[in-house]
Design a protein that fits this description.
FAD/NAD(P)-binding domain, 2 domains, ten-stranded mixed β-sheet, eight-stranded mixed β-sheet, 10 helices
């Protein structure tokens, strides 16, 4: 087979890989994206994502990216020339007891200290004004008006299309068989279409990144999680504008433009041994649904229309690894987003492209893969062996 040469090789075409491809191609760089399946297809996280974009409850290391991303989302549809079903309805974290309300006081203060200055505490009346029909036990909330939601599949495919408008090449249904190295330097990859030589390689293959890294002896501290999503039959439109969650409930709840309620919250499913699909747990489907119905009784007037499960990579410390891999020249990773990558994608794409071009990116300092060297090996092994 012939050898393909490119400046930047990106392994994985999820929303993160696509955002990096778009920004790198926009710089005028030669970009090749290799994807084992199709863009935003099952069971990848970008296909299964809830599509929420929130700043609340972000780790401090992600704060600068979150601030940038939330502003980018306002005009991203125009930028990508695509309808992303974006809606800026805010996010609301609910308290159901006085003790939880006290917790939110400190929580809001921390959010403001991180730069999320519009996040505010709302009292009982304010919460029930923002979301009518909440159960009577809700007494307060933390409200972030700039947050919102968008369609993850549309967004992922829009990044891919925009990247191709700038000249990026996509190889879909093409597996990367192994990375190629020379003197502790990654020089490309062996794919099903032949060898690719690249000046820089970006590994952004989500839950399957460990397989690719393992081809050169790298053991990434990430594990695969299966997370379920539930959609309802359509309810009357505009019943729920913000994305809501609660201090002590495993729930994210939003209403899509078509009236459908979309439920998440980290309820696990079970990845199949080959990690090509995911098996649902009926008790978790029921638990997720009942939780939403308790918090917003209007959900209970609908029926479950669809349930699915996607695979994502969870990192050892619940923070993504973004940047050059230590002791492996010319290999950059962007993975391990632990369920929080979608909202950050516009900022991550920009920052990684800047980093690849040699520009300083202090907003990525707290997410550097260099911290892997400080992890305790026995703790990492226990993490990798543990199931959800």
């Amino acid at each position: 087979m012939s050898v393909t040469n490119t400046e930047v090789l990106i392994v994985g075409s999820g929303v993160i890989g696509g955002a990096i491809a778009y920004h790198a191609a926009q710089q005028g760089r030669q970009v090749l994206v290799v994807e084992r399946s199709e863009v935003a297809s099952a069971p990848a996280a970008s296909w299964a994502s809830a599509g929420g974009m929130r700043r609340q409850q972000r780790p401090l290391a992600e704060a600068k990216l979150a601030l940038e991303a939330i502003e980018r989302w306002r005009t991203l549809e125009q930028e990508l020339e695509a309808d992303l079903l974006y809606r800026r309805g805010g996010s609301l974290v609910l308290a159901e007891t006085d003790a939880e309300a006290e917790h939110l006081v400190a929580f809001v203060q921390r959010q403001q200290e991180q730069g999320f200055t519009d996040v505010r505490l709302v009292d009982r009346q304010g919460v029930h004004t923002l979301v009518q029909g909440l159960h009577d036990g809700v007494v307060a909330g933390s409200y972030s008006p700039g947050d919102g939601q968008a369609d993850p599949v549309r967004t992922t495919r829009a990044f891919a299309t925009a990247a191709q408008r700038y000249g990026a090449i996509y190889w879909s249904a093409t597996s990367v068989l192994a990375l190629l190295t020379q003197n502790e330097r990654v020089i490309g990859a062996q794919t099903e279409r032949g060898k690719v030589q690249a000046e820089q390689v970006v590994l952004a293959a989500g839950a399957w990144s460990d397989e690719v890294a393992g081809s050169i002896g790298l053991r990434l501290p990430i594990r695969t999680r299966g997370l379920q999503m539930i959609s309802s039959t359509p309810a009357p439109h505009h019943m729920l504008l913000p994305v809501i969650g609660a201090v002590n409930r495993a729930l994210t709840l939003k209403q899509l433009p078509n009236g459908v309620f979309l439920l998440g919250g980290g309820w696990p499913g079970d990845p199949t041994p080959d990690r090509r699909s995911c098996t649902l747990r009926p008790r978790n489907v029921q638990g997720n649904w009942e939780t939403a119905c308790e918090l917003l009784p209007a959900v209970g007037r609908q029926q479950i229309a669809r349930v699915w499960c996607g695979l994502e990579a969870q990192s050892f410390d619940d923070l993504p690894f973004i940047g050059p891999m230590p002791a492996m020249d010319r290999l950059t990773v962007a993975l391990g987003f632990s369920g929080r990558g979608f909202a950050l994608a516009p900022a991550i794409g920009r920052a990684v492209a800047e980093q690849l071009a040699g520009h300083p990116t202090p907003e990525l300092d707290g997410l550097s893969p260099n911290r892997i060297t400080n992890f305790q090996p026995d703790q990492v092994e226990a993490f990798l062996a543990k199931k959800s």
